[in-house]
Design a protein that fits this description.
With 369 residues, the protein is of the alpha/beta class. It contains 16 helices and 14 strands. InterPro entries: CoA-transferase_III, CoA-Trfase_fam_III, CoA-Trfase_III_dom3_sf, CoA-Trfase_III_dom_1_sf.
Length: 369
């Protein structure tokens, strides 16, 4: 196989749980050597259910193909064992609260003296500076504080918890990889590394781009259910079918909308959804609820009008399209010989490890081994 783009680069990964480990998984898949530095009892994710034999499945899918070492970072003697690794590292990823690495003598200012070419990436909820910098939080909190959740919060009786971890992945993992690659390119030009400040809450404003454009242009920001892409239009939303499933309708463009309305035999007076959007939505809701999901799939799929039945995860992983693209082809191998598909990462197959390459889940070993 041709050389991978990050082959020969060394990554020191001090991160835990999801954002950092997913980012370093992408770097590993692109050819980098990732050395995961864990506390003596291991990354907390090692204990997350479900178990695959004696291995945590969530840990396996995020960390296969890396190498792990155990270090007590509060022990000066054990920290000293990191120096040879820092000297040869190209990238460091950490996910502690601001200031923690500096207190341990492992902050960017200290390490750049040892290795001025080091690209040092810090992932936090609110960034290294600012009034919220030391505030605790998780994905839901970052989306809440940035106003993103307000666009589609559900009802007071049934609040909606988003199914995707937009802040962890879209605000942490992906921006980390993007900025690391940009910093490496800058290092190619200048010979110098840098400190990257990745705040997961920052990217929540990126996800709210349309609502922000509306608010800045008109002086009024959209409220719950008012954004066209968050429940504000009958052309874009979810409708329940007779058998308790859902139809995802994304018929925004007029040609798709006309086709969809024709398939539902929607009255002409309701097809102009600007007149009375609520009435149009109610009529669509009634019609969709009159048939099972399979019937709507049979009717609408041939029309190609951006209407799809919401698949379960079980159906999605068996979909012939995704199977053909090999999204679940790369696997993590546990110590007992079990295999589980690696977390799906958005890297072109030409730029990552071969699907059939061995990716063992790293055992936790002392730094001296």
């Amino acid at each position: 196989m041709a050389h991978l783009p990050l082959e020969g680069l060394v990554v020191l990964d001090f991160s835990t749980l999801l954002p950092g480990p997913l980012a370093t998984l992408m770097l590993a898949e692109a050819g980098a050597e990732v050395i995961k530095v864990e506390k003596p009892q291991g990354d907390d994710m090692r204990h997350f259910p479900p178990q695959l034999g004696e291995t945590s499945a969530p840990f396996a899918v995020l960390n296969a193909g890396k190498r792990s070492i155990a270090l007590d970072l509060k022990n000066p003697d054990q920290r000293a064992a990191l120096r040879p690794l820092v000297e040869r590292a190209d990238i460091l990823v950490e996910q502690f609260r601001p200031g923690v690495m500096a207190k341990l003598g492992l902050g960017y200012e200290a390490l750049k003296v040892i290795n001025p070419r080091l690209v040092y990436c810090s992932i936090t909820g609110f960034g290294q500076e600012g009034p919220r910098a030391q505030e605790a939080g998780h994905d839901l909190n970052y989306a809440a504080v940035a106003g993103l959740l307000s666009l589609s919060p559900g009802t007071t009786r049934s609040p909606t918890v988003p199914p995707m971890l937009a802040a962890d992945i879209g605000g942490g993992s992906l921006p980390a990889v993007l900025n690391i690659l940009l910093a490496l390119r800058r290092r190619d030009l200048t010979g110098e590394g840098m400190h990257l400040d990745i705040a997961m809450s920052d990217a929540m404003f990126t996800f709210a781009w349309y609502g922000l454009a509306q608010g800045h242009a008109t002086g009024r920001f959209p409220g719950a259910g008012e954004n066209v892409l968050a429940g504000g239009s009958p052309r874009y939303g979810l409708y329940a079918t007779r058998d308790g499933r859902f139809l995802a309708v994304g018929a925004l463009e007029q040609k798709f909308w006309d086709t969809f309305c024709g398939a539902l035999d929607l009255p002409e007076a309701l097809r102009d959804d600007r007149r009375d959007p609520a009435a149009t939505r109610a009529a669509i809701t009634e019609r969709i609820a009159a048939q099972d999901a399979d019937e709507w799939r049979r009717r609408l799929t041939p029309l190609d009008c951006c209407c799809t039945v919401v698949a379960s995860l079980d159906e999605a992983v068996r979909d012939p399209h995704f199977t053909a693209r090999g999204l679940m082809g790369a696997t993590a191998a546990t110590p007992d010989g079990s295999r589980i598909p690696l977390a799906a990462v958005p890297i072109d197959p030409q730029l990552r490890r071969a699907r059939d390459e061995q990716r063992p889940v790293p055992a936790l070993k002392p730094a001296s081994q």
